[in-house]
Every structure is written in C-alpha cells, then in structure tokens.
C-alpha cells in the first residue's frame, strides 16, 4: 500500500514537477509516484505516494530553501505492515520530503512475531552512491557482535544484517519444518523489502547465513529459492542440523533437481568436529548435492575442531575471505 504526503506550492506545474524528483533524492531507494491536482485558489497540490514496509519509520521534513531541513513536529509514522497514511501540508515556498529509517525490530504479519534486527554499514557508505553486497544472518542474539567485528575489522565493503530469533526459543519453530515455510515468507515478503527500501543494496549479491537450526534453514532456502529469479547468490550453512526432517529435506531436493539442473550459486558448508557436532549430517547433505552435479554451483566444504556452539565465528571469518 502507498504512503502519501502532499506538497502545496504557488508555483507553476512544470516547476513543481522539476522539484518533485529533487525532494526525494535523499532517499533514492524509496518507491515513489508523483501526481498533481488543482487546490483551492491559485495553489497547486503535489501528491507523493511512497510504498511503506514493516519495521520502517517515515518522518516528514520541511524546508523553505531546499537546503536546510527540519522535522515536522508530530509528523512521523512507524509502519507495522504495508499501510497507507495521508499527510496534507501547505504554505508558499514551503517544501516537504520523507526521511526513512529502520526501527529496532520488524513486526511480521506472517508469523505474528517481532524480530529485532541489527544493521552494520561499511565504511564510506554515507559518502557513496554505490550499491553494496549484503549478508543476512540468523541468530542475531548470538552472532551480531562477532560477525559485525569481523566485517569492520577486515574493512569489507558490504552490508551486514543480523536477525534475532524473537521471544523464547522461537528458532525451533521458524528454522525447522513446517514453521520454516512461513519464516521464509517473512524473509522474502517483509525482511528484504523493508531493509532494501532503506539501504543501497546490490540485489544480485545477496548472501544468507545460519548456524545449527539456522544452517538447516539455509539449506531449505537453498532448495526453495525461486528457480528462475533466486533471491540469494550465496548460502552459508554452519554445522547445519540436517538431521531434522531429513526425509522432507531430501524430498524438496528431488523437486528442486526436477525443476532445474542449474543453480548459479555458492553453497558454503561447514561443520564442527568436537564432541558435539553435526559433521556426519553436513557431509550427507554435501554428498547429496554434489552427486547431482548442478550446473553453475560451487560447493565449499570446511570443518573446524571445535564444539557445535563455537563453530559460527571461524566459519563466518573464513567465508568472508572466500567470498569478499
């Protein structure tokens, strides 16, 4: 649904039209539409329509000179879903634009859960117009600190987004079947659109990352991603719990292979080899995928002599160096 606000000017139509593109230049990732209608008297009403996404805050800014911008008191909107709101403001030589920013969490209409999110931007992002590769990583409640340090210390030119599991042990529902089907919809329909409406993302360079149940989820996304227009290029699965719903997992793999023998992607599989590990199950999944001979697919396999709970960080560090 569109998010609407108005600009009222006592200028001729062509001047308003030329200003319209300039007014939203600050947020060039926003999806916008512009229309005009006659307002009372001699003024002209300029209508901007901006798509909203859950977990995003939209703030109205005012300027008299198109240089200095201030927030309009009381005119901010925190979106919890695709929504529609109207703002109507006027004044001669007064201009308005929207500033959009991520909230601390994204409320899902699909799973009915609020998921805290963390975003790490690369050095120089603010002074660049470049679109950056992006990594989406699950289990942000555990990995945010270590993963963000790895990215910043290595000065990787990418955006990192970590998503926490939500209340309780929600990951046990969202990362496993059948709950994973709805969680994958959350990723596709709510998480990605919200994040990528705010930040400049190279959508052909998306990576999805997870550990344990999250690693299982990565495998499911790998198999269920759209055959013709996949969302992700790289899939990082760390000590994935492929023993969970193994029969369904391999049934999904049969369906994926029947749909297409091509998969232009990188599947990065790691496992722990300490006392607690999923090494055997990761190897089984690796063997199944490699035996198919998917055209265009690169499979990378690493193992680490650590316990299951300690495998995420060394796996992520090595994957960063391999991919970026």
Low-pLDDT residue spans: 1-44
SS elements, strand count: 15
**CATH superfamily label of the largest domain:** Alpha/Beta hydrolase fold, catalytic domain
Radius of gyration: 23 Å
Could you provide a short overview of the structure?
With 324 residues, this protein is α/β, with parallel strands linked by helices. Helix content is 31%, strand content 34%.
What does this structure look like?
This protein is of the alpha/beta class. The protein folds into two domains: 2-102, no CATH class; 106-323, Alpha/Beta hydrolase fold, catalytic domain (Rossmann fold), CATH 3.40.50. Helices cover 31% and strands 34% of the residues. It has eight helices and 15 strands. The protein has helices at 13-23, 140-153, 171-174, 179-196, 213-224, 246-259, 279-292, 312-323; strands spanning 2-9, 32-38, 44-51, 56-63, 70-79, 86-87, 95-102, 105-107, 114-120, 132-137, 159-163, 201-211, 234-238, 262-272, 295-304. The chain has an eight-stranded mixed β-sheet with strand order 8-9-11-10-12-13-14-15, with helices on both faces. Strands 2-3-1-6 form a four-stranded mixed β-sheet, with helices on one face. Strands 5-4-7 form a three-stranded antiparallel β-sheet, with no helix packed on it. Strand 12 (201-211), helix 5 and strand 13 form a beta-alpha-beta unit. Helix 2 packs across helix 8 and helix 5 packs parallel to helix 6 (246-259). The longest helix is centred in the middle third of the chain and has 18 residues, at 179-196. The protein starts with a strand and ends with a helix. The model is unreliable at 1-44 (pLDDT under 50).
